Amino acid sequence: MERGKMAEAESLETAAEHERILREIESTDTACIGPTLRSVYDSEEHGRFMEKLETRIRNHDREIEKMCNFHYQGFVDSITELLKVRGEAQKLKNQVTDTNRKLQHEGKELVIAMEELKQCRLQQRNISATVDKLMLCLPVLEMYSKLRDQMKTKRHYPALKTLEHLEHTYLPQVSHYRFCKVMVDNIPKLREEIKDVSMSDLKDFLESIRKHSDKIGETAMKQAQQQRNMDNIILQQPRIGSKRKSKKDAYTVFDTEIESTSPKSEQDSGILDVEDEEDDEEVPGAQDLVDFSPVYRCLHIYSVLGARETFENYYRKQRRKQARLVLQPPSNMHETLDGYRKYFNQIVGFFVVEDHILHTTQGLVNRAYIDELWEMALSKTIAALRTHSSYCSDPNLVLDLKNLIVLFADTLQVYGFPVNQLFDMLLEIRDQYSETLLKKWAGIFRNILDSDNYSPIPVTSEDMYKKVVGQFPFQDIEMEKQAFPKKFPFSEFVPKVYNQIKEFIYACLKFSEDLHLSSTEVDDMIRKSTNLLLTRTLSNSLQNVIKRKNIGLTELVQIIINTTHLEKSCKYLEEFITNITNVLPETVHTTKLYGTTTFKDARHAAEEEIYTNLNQKIDQFLQLADYDWMTGDLGNKASDYLVDLIAFLRSTFAVFTHLPGKVAQTACMSACKHLATSLMHLLLEAEVRQLTLGALQQFNLDVRECEQFARSGPVPGFQEDTLQLAFIDLRQLLDLFIQWDWSTYLADYGQPSCKYLRVNPVTALTLLEKMKDTSRKNNVFAQFRKNERDKQKLIDTVAKQLRGLISSHHS
């Protein structure tokens, strides 16, 4: 029972479950019945469920059938109405077909028109699209056309800018067109063409400024000269406390304010024509002479193309080559000043251009590059000037060269170039200038001395007197009191030489101008040069005149007088130098003039020449001496040659009245000593092998004549018997032999009070030997005469004693 109840309960539960599933199937979307059906198959009652499902289907079929039976009539009515509608629909279809046929027939033209309209609209749309594309292409074509025009007119920098816009702005918008690809492919070629053409313009520019550097430099130096002239005019105006001219260190020459970032013009490179502007008052500046736009254009073009470094290297390399060409001087530069001027103009022109480039471009050249070029130029220029200036023998040319170098240095100093080495080199040229001046003045002095008459200057009027005194500082109160006509003691070469010394000083001063030297340096330079003039040039000229073969005693006497007055004038030369340099002689390290020494040396040389000349004249007279050394006759007068000699000496010493006393006395004493020495030599010479007492007597008369001349006082100032002492040796020797006072000589020899103190035993023996030989040869029968034998023995005895004296003296 319980099992049956349980089975029944389960059956009821299953039936309820199946009922639920069927309701769920009926109420649920067919897409979601999968889980429901799965629950049926998961249980083991699907067979029973199928039966339940079939039962439910049959129930629904019966309900449908009931529903259809209920609505059947309505359905039949609906079918009948539908058949009627079909007939009407057929009619409507026929009408529509007819209407369509008519419409098609009537709209055929409209369709054609619409087709045409469609084509027009399509064309219009295509045209509009084409116009739009052309509007994009036209700027490209216009820019390209503009580019070609700019290339043709050589406006390369704008062409490069146009090319940049074309490449980066316009071509990317139409890059899919073939012609754009052609343009793109052509752009590198155009860039290279612009580079090549701009480089060609730069080469033309470089060649042009190389040819016209001298014109640029000439212009710069003219402007510097104008500025210096203006400075000098200002400095010449009176200023309190100003004692010396000074010079501005720098001044503006050219206005270099031009744009440095873009070219000023699109003109071709080159030098502008300024030939018609030379007569204008204002000298044009560098930017007025040179069109620098090719440099700027090429620099900007290469900068835009990313090749600035290449351009800078090329420019610097070419300018270095040009610098070497400019710095190579012509071989004949030293011949004329124009050669130096052209050389300087080229150098100045070169560096004016470089300085302008330095200040108007950003980095094309830099200060280090300019300094390097200037160092090279300075060394080569100084070497060239040293070489070529050494050939200059004309002081005027050297002076003009110095002025040109100063202008050259001042011009370049304005542009900031150091020029100290040039001024140092000018100091070297100053020494050369001094040498050329000395050579020139050597000729001047030679002409003055050769043309002088060596006679005192006569003056017949007050004007003539003042003229001479104005030329030479001379003061003599006694002469001023004398009546005209009267004579200056010196000859014409004195004022001429004095004035030429002053002219030399002026010439030295000219060279020192504008060298930026202090007054002390100028004073020292002038004094040293003047000392060279006095001690070397003038001294040599005077020495040459004094040593001249045909110089006479009168000329020598006048030279001594002249040099005495020139020596006195040295203090006035000192004052003259002090006045023009404003440096007092008392200043420390001030060089003193050596004129006094020069004129003293010349005077001493003239004195010596007088002494030598007198001695030569005496020798000439002595050559006329013709003694008969074997004569036995006793003469009663002096020899004729000696009488003439004494007369000559008297007349000569009469001319010495204007000489300083000591000079005349020395000349007279020298002449007497030379005469005495020559007479002694004449007596003792080896050619005179024998002589007689008679010859000694004649010789004694001649010596007495000489002593008489000495006693007469031919030159005032000698003390009593001083001049006679020149003949004392001869006098004592002759007295010893004529008086035959050997006993006294031999007894007193060696004593200070000896009567024959000046007689040398060697001299006495020599003369005694000559007399002994004479006695032996001339007196054949001397051995038969007792007195002759005694005399011969006495001579031998005296000779023996003299030899003893000599030997004892030597021992």
UniProtKB/TrEMBL annotation:
Domain (Exocyst complex component EXOC6/Sec15 N-terminal): residue spans on this chain: 52-221
Keyword NAD included in the entry's annotation: no
UniProt keyword Amino-acid biosynthesis present: no
InterPro entries named among the record's database cross-references: EXOC6/Sec15, EXOC6/Sec15_C, EXOC6/Sec15_C_dom1, EXOC6_Sec15_N, EXOC6PINT-1/Sec15/Tip20_C_dom2
Domain of life: Eukaryota
GO cellular component: exocyst; plasma membrane
GO biological process, one term: Golgi to plasma membrane transport
Pfam families: EXOC6_Sec15_N, Sec15_C
Domain Exocyst complex subunit EXOC6/Sec15 C-terminal stretches: 421-770
Coiled-coil residues: 82-109
Region of interest (Disordered), ranges: 255-280
Alphabetized UniProt keyword annotations: Coiled coil, Exocytosis, Transport
Gene3D superfamilies documented for this protein: Dsl1p vesicle tethering complex, Tip20p subunit, domain D, Exocyst complex subunit Sec15 C-terminal domain, N-terminal subdomain
Role noted for this protein: Component of the exocyst complex involved in the docking of exocytic vesicles with fusion sites on the plasma membrane.
Family: Belongs to the SEC15 family.
Name of this chain's protein: Exocyst complex component
Originating species: Trichechus manatus latirostris (Florida manatee)
